[in-house]
């Protein structure tokens, strides 16, 4: 956080334009497993809200840091089944990104995602969500790479962002049908975001 604030102070004196971007949208989240067969989660819909200061280096290149509250849901089995389990995790995501404007209204972005878990909840079928107690299934932090497609019109914008988790986020121990522990199982976060937003511009005089 201190680094981001120092960058803001230094850049403010040299950049042509500083924006403050507000955004919100939906998450379509899932999990990918390594070293584990026949494990599958059904995508669940969540939401996010964010605020992102951005700094324009030149006509085509900008740097931003998106601070998000993000809610992600997953399900095991058929969502409508009485045996289905739901799992919900809330994060504060910090996402530094570089944007390159390929067209007057179109930009591509790449960056990283650092997630801080706030809480996790579970439910059975269509029951109520309840906080997990005693044992947390998900680690306290997440890390991954992001890619983004952004379309702008004046101060409004819409975007698609995909987060590819690189860090194992599970605390669970997995076993095979014989009860033997399966070593080196990794559970990796995958999340597609569809969002809209509004940019406040602060142009230097």
Short summary:
This protein is mostly beta strands.
How would you describe this structure to a colleague?
This protein has 205 residues and is mainly β. The protein has a single domain, classed as Porin, CATH 2.40.160.20. It is built from one helix and nine strands; from the N terminus they run H-E-E-E-E-E-E-E-E-E. The chain has an eight-stranded antiparallel barrel. Strand 7 and strand 8 form a beta hairpin. The protein is elongated and about 65 Å long.
Features:
single chain; 205 residues; mainly beta; Porin; eight-stranded antiparallel beta barrel; 62% strand
Q: Write down the secondary-structure element order.
A: HEEEEEEEEE
What fraction strand? over 45%
Shape: elongated
Spans where pLDDT lies below 50 across 5 or more residues: none
Structural class: mainly beta
Side by side, the strands of the main sheet go 1-2-3-4-5-7-8-9
Largest sheet composition: 8 strands, antiparallel, barrel
Helix fraction, binned, reads under 10%
CATH classification, class level: Mainly Beta
**How far is the N terminus from the C terminus?**
28 Å
CATH fold label: Porin
Helix tally equals 1
Strand segment tally: 9
Q: What is the residue-averaged pLDDT?
A: 84
Q: What is the number of independent domains?
A: 1
CATH-scheme architecture: Beta Barrel
Estimated radius of gyration: 19 Å
């Amino acid at each position: 956080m201190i680094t981001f604030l120092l960058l803001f102070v230094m850049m403010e004196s040299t950049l042509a334009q500083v924006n403050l971007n507000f955004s919100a949208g939906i998450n379509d989240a899932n999990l990918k497993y390594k070293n584990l067969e026949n494990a599958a989660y059904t995508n669940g819909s969540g939401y996010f809200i964010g605020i992102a200061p951005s700094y324009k280096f030149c006509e085509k290149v900008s740097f931003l840091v998106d601070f998000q509250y993000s809610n992600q849901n997953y399900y095991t089995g058929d969502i409508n089944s009485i045996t289905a389990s739901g799992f919900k995790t809330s994060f504060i995501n910090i996402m530094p990104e570089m944007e390159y404007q390929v067209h007057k209204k179109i930009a591509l972005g790449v960056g990283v995602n650092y997630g801080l878990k706030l809480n996790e909840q579970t439910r059975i079928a269509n029951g109520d969500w309840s906080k997990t107690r005693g044992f947390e299934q998900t680690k306290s932090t997440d890390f991954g790479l992001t890619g983004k497609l952004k379309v702008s019109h004046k101060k409004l914008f819409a975007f698609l962002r995909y987060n590819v988790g690189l860090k194992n986020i599970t605390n669970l121990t997995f076993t095979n049908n014989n009860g033997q522990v399966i070593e080196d199982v990794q559970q990796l976060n995958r999340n597609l975001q569809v969002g809209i937003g509004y940019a406040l511009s602060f142009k230097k005089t």
